[in-house]
Amino acid sequence: MDPELLRHVAASTGLSGPVAARVVADVVAYFSETTEQYVRRRHRELQAREQRNAEIWAVIATELASRPVRAGEVSERQLRRIVYG
Question: What is the CA radius of gyration of the chain?
Answer without folding.
Answer: 17
